[in-house]
Amino acid sequence: MTKGCAYKSKFDAVRSWIFECTASDKNIICVIFIDVQYLVSNAVTGLRVTASLRTFIETLEAKGQLLSVDREVDQKFELNAVVRKVQAGINLPVMFNKVRGSRYRVISNTLGNYDLIAGLIGVPKGQVASAWSRLISETGKAYEPYPAESPELEEISLADIPHLIFSEKDAGPYITAGVILARDAETQVVNLSYHRMQIVSDTELRCRLSTSGDLYRLQQAAEKRGEPLKAVVAIGLPPEVMLAAGSTIGPTTSEYELAARIAGRSFPTRLTSDGLPVPDSTEFLIEGEILPNERRSEGPFGEWMDYYVQPMDNHVFVVKRVLARKDAIFYAISAGSAEELAMTALPIAGSMYNAIRTWVPQIRDVSCLPLLQICALQIAKTAEGQANRAIVAAFGAEMNRVLYCVVVDEDVDIHNPRDVLWAIATRCRPDRDVFQIPGVPSFARDPHKIHWGRLGIDATKPLDHPADFERKKTPGLNDIRLEDYLSKKS
């Protein structure tokens, strides 16, 4: 392989992807063979011991599921470009060992592969939604904690962390994988949530707080008291904590509890200067407070729908202290990438599964990938009309992002967009099996009302003549190894 771009893998050759590695002197197109079934089976059986981000990285590396980039990359655009290139092909976690202008390594995309997420939860990909619905419903269970790592932390400046710029017209460097932790003054519940943060100076971040989120509620309560909200930004967390922080579970339960349910063990914490508990193994901590009655211009920034969010007045986070492990690993999530969409799709699918199951027990799986605006439901249809009931229940469970809902049968793979399109093309009658729900808003930041309304599609086969919709099969297809048949050119 090309100098400066090492690909560490132990996959058998079954299916190929094209991955381009650019060296300083030439471009080389490398054909990398990946056994997709290997990815799935090994993800399910071997990724649950993840006491920290580092143990997760070590597990990925041992299984050949971590890409390593040794060539120096620029913080402005180049690092993100490589991440997006990886996600468009082999879609595995990637570690950048040399980042120009920073002494810290950067990792990205550890949660961009849905098979790896399934492995963390301990189920096959087709059972992720149902498993998540059980996780968010559990209560009152105590978990044994992981052993504390208690790594030594050193005080650094915000200027020392990687200043990544992702898109051409971004206002400047952004922190995209920072989880803000704050405590509810009334209930003492600690909230964890993601928010984009523009780095303005060594002492100031400007962050977008969603008006429907718990952190916004906590900040508003502090603002009414005329007080700043004490908070800390944590970067480089255990993957289960990262998943939990992207979920909506209500104001009375901490995302720490959900993370423990996912892992089957709780995560040891240490206290910040303001008494906030942060995971013991966290790579970077940015301590500070969100100012009351203060909003300053933030943006533009290339957001999750792959459009730029225009400048707006957002909240101000004043930095008091920055801490890092001596060999800290910085985490970055490319906005709107496979990683952000997978992390967001998971809790949406789980919540939908819960809601649909009440009215349509025949629900089997839910997927909101590869685009959050479109969800696919798989049901074991037993009566006409079940698809429409499932669609209405799904829309009621997720009011912010999902605009389109497709229902298919058990013989359709909802994690394969081509299969879902095939079902629509061959089983949906457009003048009968499609319905609209007009005038329903989605997320709040939609001044032009572009993302209003809902569209439901019944792409299930009719029950009265099933023989006409039996999918053809080619015996032995899944056992074919192309390398046993194709000639190799010297």
Q: What features would you describe in this structure?
A:
There is one protein chain. The protein is α+β, with helices and mostly antiparallel strands and 490 residues long. It has three domains: 5-128, no CATH class; 135-331, Pnp Oxidase, Chain A (Roll), CATH 2.30.110.10; 360-469, 3-Layer(aba) Sandwich (UbiD C-terminal domain-like). The protein is built from eleven helices and 25 strands. The protein has helices at residues 36-46, 53-62, 78-87, 114-121, 128-137, 214-224, 239-245, 255-263, 338-359, 386-397, 417-427; strands at residues 5-7, 15-22, 27-34, 67-69, 94-96, 105-108, 153-156, 174-175, 179-183, 190-194, 197-201, 204-207, 229-235, 269-271, 277-279, 284-298, 301-302, 308-309, 312-325, 329-331, 363-367, 374-379, 404-408, 434-437, 454-458. The strands form six sheets. Strands 7, 8, 9, 10, 11, 12, 13, 16 and 19 form a nine-stranded antiparallel β-sheet that branches. It has a five-stranded mixed β-sheet with strand order 1-4-5-6-20, covered by helices on one side. Strands 21-22-23-25-24 form a five-stranded mixed β-sheet, sandwiched between helices. α1 runs parallel beside α4 (114-121) and α9 packs across α10. The chain is globular, with a radius of gyration of 23 Å. The two termini are 17 Å apart. The relative contact order is 0.11. Mean pLDDT is 89; it is low at 1-46.
